[in-house]
Amino acid sequence: MNELRFGRGELGDPDVAARLEWRVTNGIGGFAAGTLSGELAHRGHGLLFAAEPAPRPATLVLAKLAATLELGGKSHALDTSAWKSGALDPVGHRHLESVRLEDGLPVWVWSIGGTRLEHRVWMERGENTTYAQYRLRSSPGAVRLRLHALVNHRSATDVVPRGDWTARIEPAPGGLCIQAWEGATPLWLTAPGAEVHPRHDWYRDYRLRSDGPPHAPAHEDHLLAAEIVAGLEPGDEFTVVASTRKDAATGIAGSLAIVSAHARRNAHERGLLEAWRREHPQSARHAAPWVQALVTAAADGIAEPTGGVAHPGAVLFSDACTTSDPARDTLLALPGLTLATGRAGLARDVLEYFGERLSGGVPPRAPGDERPATADATLWLVQALRAYFEHTLDTGFLATLFPRLETALEALASGAQAGVSADATDGLLRTGGDGAPATWMDTQLAAAGLPMRQGKAVETNALWYNAHTAMAAFARRLRAGEPWEKQATKIERGFARFWNADAHCLYDVLDGPHGTDASIRPNQILALSLPDSPLSASQRRAVLARCARDLATSHGLRSLSLDDPRHIDSETGDAVHDARTAVMGSAWTWLLPHYALATLRVHGDRAAALELLEPLEGLMRGRGLGMLPERSDSARPHAGRGAACRAWATAETLRAYRLLTGPRRDMRRRESTHAKDAAPVKPRRTAAAFSDRA
Question: How many CB atoms lie within 10 A of CB 81?
Answer without folding.
Answer: 22
